[in-house]
């Protein structure tokens, strides 16, 4: 194989964006598209001059499709991804990989059973600043982590929520800011800081006429006794995007695209234990971090999967790690609704029953609902 021939399932805003992006990648090409809405499939197929299908099985089964990009609304991700992996067709699945962590388990099991490559479109991992942050953490430069913090405060208009029937409904996407807008930040947060073992969450709907949360916060407890805090919303302007990890040997802070790292050579607790001074603090040294330029965004993930298939390049965003994001999201939503702490791993049966009860009452209504628009913000994802 010289080039990977991708088929895309779901060619609304994001799927069409991926079709365009593929045209800029030497290692791959678009060979077919699929959309459950026939006129959408036809118009995108004609735009890109490729065959178009209505049923995803027909796309996956094509001999001229080597790998699949899944860009439907989230509820459909597991069924399509699992079918593709079972047919031996590698999958790049849009975020979140699933709505429930039980479905994520099934996707991970399918990947492990079949050995078919599986990636998640958590493209922010490819950004220079996050690669640099990952390097610091994985080299142990922070020492044992004592505190984590994530604030992802963004903006979405009511018109955005009204732009597709599935958006911001329990039946259509199974959550709000946590399941749709914050997953990239939550992915980075769990990638660098790991998963907590206990979550005390709060969710609310403050600024929009929607069924699901547009505000979510949580206190986090980690297995080592570390604590953390996250806050996510779609009611603020300008946006705030802050991640902080504080450890024994250093502190990492990323605000937007700016990374800062401070080293504590003697260690925070080490210094506290050994110092005999009453009013003192450990020395802190801000260390400049080299942040090499590199390709980032959707293009990096699509190219990475192609190179993984062609040359065995390591995946930037393995699909298996997409489960951590869903685990965290489910924990905060469940805890917020139950108004009590929730242990992680989340009890799968409890979450499924909880979500089913919300889906059963989902009206899909958001007041002034127009036609589905299928337009994705290509600047701010
Ligand atoms: N990674 C990112 O930066 C990013 C950005 C935007 C959206 N997304 C994700 O992409 C996914 C799609 O979002 P969108 O904004 O493109 O939505 P959209 O509504 O614009 O497009 C979804 C398309 O999927 C089609 N579809 C639905 N069920 C299908 C099925 N079973 N088989 C085939 N086609 C089906 C719909 O008809 C629609 O055309 C979501 O999971 C979203 O979270 C990711």
Compact overview of the structure:
This protein is 34% helix and 23% strand.
Number of strand segments = 15
Report the order of strands and helices. Answer: EHEHEHEHEHEHEHHEEEEEEHEHHEH
**Bound compounds:** nicotinamide-adenine-dinucleotide
Count up the domains: 2
CATH superfamily of the largest domain: Dihydrodipicolinate Reductase, domain 2
Individual helix count: 12
CATH architecture label name of the largest domain: 2-Layer Sandwich
Helix content: 25-40%
Q: Return Rg in Å.
A: 21 Å
Shape: globular
What is the SS-derived class? alpha/beta
What would the CATH topology of the largest domain be? Dihydrodipicolinate Reductase, domain 2
In whole angstroms, the N-to-C terminal distance is 32 Å
Assembly state (oligomeric): single chain
Q: Classify the beta-strand content into a percent band.
A: 15-25%
Mean pLDDT reading: 95
Uncertain residue ranges: none
CATH domain class name of the largest domain: Alpha Beta
- Describe the biggest sheet? 9 strands, mixed
- Across the major sheet, the strand order is 14-13-12-11-7-10-9-8-15
